[in-house]
Amino acid sequence: MKKIKYLTAGMLSVAALFADSTDSLAQRRVNTHFLPYSSVSFGVGSSHYYGDLAGYRQFIKATYIMPRWNVGIGYTRQFTPKFAARATFTWARIAGDDYTFNKNNIVENLPQYVRNLHFRNDLKEFAITGVYNFIPDGRTSEERAKFTPYIFGGIALLAHSPEARTPYDPNATEAQQWVKLQPLHTEGQGQPGYDKPYSLVTAAIPVGLGVRYKLNENFNLAFEVGFRYTFTDYLDDAGGNYAAKDALTGLAAQMADRRQEVYAARPKSHPNRYQPLVDLYQNGDPSQQAQISNELQGSVVRGADGKLNDGYLLTSFQIHYIIPSKIKCPPIR
């Protein structure tokens, strides 16, 4: 009986020692694992529009002609040394102008110059993206890489509302006004035989790349460039054909067809945009004269970039604050 008691006690002791050593080993293994951490960010940068008023086929020119601004905030969770998920909100303004884009090359871009559309649009974008770091972080946020190039991609929800200025009249007593274009249904949307009005909420696909620099234990600096391809052709309010002349009246008709306007709408100096067309017509050959006449009165095409939807590119200079994973309390004395 005593032998059984001694044997049982010995077995329990061995089991206890084994359990204790297993717990210690597990604890050591946990301590060697990556510890996820979070950060918040703030960024500012430029915005660049691509669409019917600044075509993809002239990507470089579209990038530098009419840049605008963006500001954004974000929250990032670093799950592994290389992979993170990020949620961001960005407010960006984009703009386009047929006159500004084509005034130095009227002959080659005659249809677009004659069309004379312009717009601005404030975009509110909420995006969820995955981020892949090419250089892995260390075990903790304090041990993250000093310099990290990365790529990102995901999905975004976008709210927008394009606007344009009312026509310029040097004899008018009232100043020009920015007018929202979607409620005017400038391509006849909503009427029998026309498409339904386009939505002011759409999706986009953000993809891009960036570089991140560890400033100290609590802060990163970053720069990134990201392109957004949207699911709408109406960030610029132009995507189809002109509506019939009797389909629109009043302000809607004025904002829909701006081919006959004498003055450019957006520049502060309001140059005479019609005179270069008159000069070109008077000095041109019959084929060129016919083209100008057709664009001014006979063309039915209002959108100009084929089947591609509109897009925009954002650059962003960012500062990231690393959220401490543990709150360190002072020792009790």
Automatic annotation (TrEMBL):
<feature type="domain" description="DUF6089">
    <location>
        <begin position="201"/>
        <end position="238"/>
    </location>
</feature>
<dbReference type="InterPro" id="IPR045743">
    <property type="entry name" value="DUF6089"/>
</dbReference>
<dbReference type="InterPro" id="IPR011250">
    <property type="entry name" value="OMP/PagP_B-barrel"/>
</dbReference>
<feature type="signal peptide">
    <location>
        <begin position="1"/>
        <end position="26"/>
    </location>
</feature>
<protein>
    <submittedName>
        <fullName>Outer membrane protein with beta-barrel domain</fullName>
    </submittedName>
</protein>
<feature type="domain" description="DUF6089">
    <location>
        <begin position="42"/>
        <end position="159"/>
    </location>
</feature>
<dbReference type="Pfam" id="PF19573">
    <property type="entry name" value="DUF6089"/>
</dbReference>
<keyword id="KW-0732">Signal</keyword>
